[in-house]
Amino acid sequence: MSDLTVERIQRNNAVFREANERIRESAQTYAHELEHIPFLCECPVEDCVEIVPLTEDQYAAIRANPSHYMTAVGHEVAEAPVGTVVSRNDGYVVVEKS
Ligand SMILES: [Zn+2]
Fold first, then answer.
1. Ligand 1 is a single-atom ion; what residues have CB below 5 A from it?
2. Could you tell me the strand order of the sheet in which 68-72 lies?
3. What is the C-alpha to C-alpha distance for residues 63 and 67, in angstroms, rounded to an integer?
4. How do residues 57-75 score in pLDDT, each as one tens digit?
5. Which residues pair with 40 in a beta bridge?
6. 51 by DSSP, 3-state: which?
7. Distance from the CA of 43 to the center of ligand 1, in angstroms?
8. What stretches in the chain show pLDDT beneath 70?
């Protein structure tokens, strides 16, 4: 596995984390009644557009650990070069990346 791949995965992670933080803020501001917030899958597949609906609490639990990311079910395989699966849940997978 090349450094380039690792770098791409890491850059991708940062972009999605930022996007998802913005989604969470908007949901807090405009959509209090939403039970599930439509977050973006954080896997490194470039054309992935999978939406992962999570409750605020589920998302907060993932974010509580800075090395934890979430992906749609099945997308965790793309994380294999840098990540290990922490937990498999209903509709999403939590991956730990160093
Ligand atoms: Zn994905």
1. 41, 43, 48, 50, 75
2. 68-72, 92-97, 83-88
3. 8
4. 999 999 999 999 999 999 9
5. 51
6. strand
7. 4
8. 1-2
pLDDT of residue 54: 96
What pLDDT sits at residue 58?
96
Separation CA 46–CA 37 (nearest Å): 22
Structural domains of the chain, count: 1
Cα–chain center distance at 68: 8
Span from the CA of 36 to the centroid of ligand 1 (angstroms) = 18
Containing structural domain, residue 9: 3-97
Provide the residue count of the chain.
Answer: 98
Cα 91 to ligand 1 centre (Å): 12
DSSP 42: -
User: Tell me, what's the pLDDT at 1?
Assistant: 55
